[in-house]
């Protein structure tokens, strides 16, 4: 699990969430992109809570995501998560049922990797809808989703750092252009601020 983080040394919601589920420390990487963050996160002890604490100069979220992605071997997978996630859920009877264990969350990631491999694509995500009433049992192959949960296979594509926002949507478009599809799960959700 890779967390590109910025200016939140004292508020690590995603890290807190992953720890509460029992995700092992060595499974969690956190990346910062400037010297101020590097010092503040170390002072707050964040570097001691993760398996890998990575500092690489950058100017935007895309650079931070690319740093994490470049630390994965070619063909390997990483789950990129926003740094303000409060909980993960699955839709049950039009309501979000919170994921409560590491095994459940790891199982979701494994399900997504297997389906991506089967369908010949390199990207999976969760719905952005915070109201489970609108969820469904479908997996969309042509959709845009935000960076709350982006399960990415390193394949040579990069997040575009020339645009200040929406690099996650732009990455979805790149994947659809090259591979013809991605996997967006309408029945899984990552709730964030």
Total of DSSP H or I helical runs spanning 4+ residues: 5
**How many extended strands?**
10
- CA-atom Rg in angstroms: 16 Å
Give the biggest beta sheet: 7 strands, mixed
Sequence stretches where pLDDT stays below 50 over 5 or more residues: none
Q: Assembly type of the shown chains?
A: single chain
- The amount of helix comes to 25-40%
The residue-averaged pLDDT reads 92
What order do the helices and strands come in, and which of them pair?
Blueprint: E1 2-4, H1 13-21, E2 29-32, H2 35-43, E3 52-55, H3 61-70, E4 77-81, E5 85-92, E6 95-98, H4 102-119, E7 123-127, E8 139-140, E9 149-153, H5 167-179, E10 183-192
Parallel strand pairs: 1-2, 2-3, 7-10
Antiparallel strand pairs: 4-9, 5-6, 5-10, 7-9, 8-10
The gist of it:
The protein has 193 residues and is an alpha/beta fold.
């Amino acid at each position: 699990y890779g967390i590109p983080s910025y200016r939140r040394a004292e508020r690590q919601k995603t890290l807190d969430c992953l720890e509460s589920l029992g995700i092992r420390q060595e499974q969690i990487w956190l990346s910062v992109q400037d010297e101020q963050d590097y010092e503040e996160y170390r002072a707050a002890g964040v570097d001691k809570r993760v398996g890998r604490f990575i500092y690489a100069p950058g100017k935007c979220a895309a650079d931070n995501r690319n740093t994490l992605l470049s630390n994965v071997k070619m063909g390997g997978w990483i789950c990129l998560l926003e740094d303000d996630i409060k909980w993960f859920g699955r839709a049950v009877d039009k309501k979000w049922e919170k994921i409560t264990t590491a095994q459940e969350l790891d199982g979701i990631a494994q399900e997504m990797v297997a389906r991506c491999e089967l369908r010949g694509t390199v990207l999976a995500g969760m719905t952005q809808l915070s109201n489970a009433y609108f969820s469904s049992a479908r997996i969309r192959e042509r959709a845009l989703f935000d960076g709350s949960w982006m399960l990415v296979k390193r394949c040579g594509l990069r997040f575009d750092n020339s645009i200040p926002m929406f690099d996650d949507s732009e990455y979805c478009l790149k994947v659809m252009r090259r591979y013809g599809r991605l996997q967006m799960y309408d029945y899984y959700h990552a709730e964030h601020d």
